[in-house]
Amino acid sequence: MATRNNTQNRPSGKRRGAEVRAAAWLARHPGVLATPTAVTTSVLELGPVTTGSVAAGLLTAAVAWRRIDPDTYHRHAAPRFRAVRRRWTRYHGYPWRRNLDACELTRIDRRTGAWQVPRVLKVTSPTPTIDVVTVKLCRGQSVRTFQGRRDELAAALGAEVLAIENAKPRVITITAVYGNPFTEIVPAVEIPDEAHEVDLTALELGDTEHGQAWSEPLLGNHWLVHGATGSGKGGLLWNPLRAMGPMIRDGLVKVWMIDPKGGMETEQGRPLFHRYATSTDPNVVLEQTGELEDETDAMVALITRFRDAMKQRQELLRDQGLRKVEVSAETPLHVLMIDELAMLTALGGRNVTYQVNKLLGEIMTQGRAAGFAVCAYVQEPTKDIVPIRDLFTVRICLRTTSSDYVDMVLGDHARLRGAIADEIPMTEDYAGIGYRITNTTRTPIRVRAGLVTDEDIAELVTTCTPLTRDDGDDPTGVVVPIAA
User: Is Nucleotide-binding set as a keyword in this record (predicted)?
Assistant: First the structure.
């Protein structure tokens, strides 16, 4: 009996009628029928002149929007226009079937002989060079079917690289990257002439793939920058310093630098820093004790003093009845920069790890209103290395060695939305390129940090070294000798 029921429930092998398939296709693509219907109705009811005037008015409005406010146009309108155009030119009809068939990603139904092609459900185009295509697979296919033909499919589509992931059962997401929008090296950002020209809520770091200046807010925020060795993290350390250089010179910003890698990256800029500690300079004097500490204790002590300075600022604000600091010479912005956080949070021993994570957690949960910011740079962003990563409000992901790291840094499903930082080539031509997430739409945007050379750092030190240095201005601070 069970065998007979199973036989009765098996498909007959006959295809649906052509009119049924056409109706189903129109139901999935209502715009194909709705658009000409609306135009025809408008012509009949309003006349061709009125209809043409309305269409011309809409086109003029779109062009005016792009010219008047390109930021909002590229954020809201351009991605939709691109998605519609590319869906019908790249991922639909004969071109799509031909490319998949050439890559052996189509199937023949052995019962009906019908040609089965994986169906495109959705196309988004968040940036000019990235398409995210959601595809429903044919029966008998899996994400591994497509992953096994990834290189062939990339070549067929003309894409530089593809990322293929499983979205849900029988549905995959293909992220296609077309070319490198940064055909030339982005130079280091210009140093403003005066402090009043600096905007701490929009520090320029480089360019976006839209050809616009890339800026990030530092005041009231904490940055986490992730990138593998050689990915260009140095550009995201020095460009912020160049962008706010006059404020450093005038004492409106005080930078506390920790370099656990021995100072190879930061030693040249040492005169800029209010406080400084490295793994090779244990001669850090604690003013309260006058004793020398070992190299790890020196860095932990500097973070402790940074926390203590924040507590003092909080008391000052309470006494003045203020809820938020105004940056001034009396209440400057304090920035703690840690070049390779993992050396302290995971590789420094259990006691050091506990102290550093506790101190940083306290600073980042309380320091925003007081004018205390943290900028951390790391090569491995796992919870074991950076257990407090959720406290960072601005996150940037440069080239990474693992696809899992992308979501760890940028948030859940960031890679599915197009942030394929693990696919960035390991060449100098791609140094400084990475992804950030827009705060409004959660859309990944490709960016490139400016290349900062030794000459650019020397220029920064020459023009922006603080005019006056008072290492006793913070009675609980850590004093590090500064080169003259």
Answer: yes
Binding site for ATP: which residues?
227-234
Contact, 398 vs 432, CB < 8 A?
A: yes
Q: Which residue has the tokens 């593809």?
A: 162
**CATH code linked to domain 195-479:** 3.40.50.300
CB neighbour list of residue 256: distance below 8 Å, 6 or more residues apart: 273, 274, 275, 276, 302, 306, 334, 335, 336, 337
Per domain, the residue ranges of the chain are 68-179, 195-479
d(CA 421, CA 381): 13
What is the fold, at CATH topology level, of the domain defined by 68-179? Answer: Threonyl-tRNA Synthetase; Chain A, domain 2 (3.30.980)
Q: How far apart are CA 166 and CA 169, in angstroms?
A: 8
Cα 373 to Cα 253: distance, rounded to the nearest angstrom: 11
State how far the Cα of 283 lies from the Cα of 281, in Å rounded to an integer: 5
pLDDT band at 242 (very low <50, low <70, confident <90, very high): very high
Q: Which residues contact 264 (CB under 8 A, 6 or more apart)?
A: none
Nearest to 92 by CA among 32, 147, 45: 32
Using DSSP, state whether 187 is helix, strand or coil. Answer: strand
Q: Which residues pair with 115 in a beta bridge?
A: 108
CB 357 within 8 A of CB 394: no
How far is 476 from 275, CA to CA, in rounded Å?
A: 12
Which helix (H) or strand (E) segment holds residue 143: the answer is helix 143-147
Annotated binding site: 227-234
pLDDT > 70 in the chain, percent: 82
pLDDT digits (tens, 9 = 90+) for 135-147: 999 988 888 999 8
Tokens found for residue 252: 């409106």
Helix (H) or strand (E) holding 304: helix 295-320
Q: From its phi and psi, is residue 331 left (phi > 0), alpha (psi between -120 and 50) or beta? A: beta
Q: Count of alpha carbons within 13 Å of 146, Cβ hemisphere only?
A: 25
**Could you give the CA distance from residue 243 to residue 195 in angstroms, rounded to a whole number?**
10
Q: Which pLDDT belongs to residue 82?
A: 87
* Per-residue pLDDT reduced to its tens digit, 68-92: 777 776 677 888 888 888 888 889 8
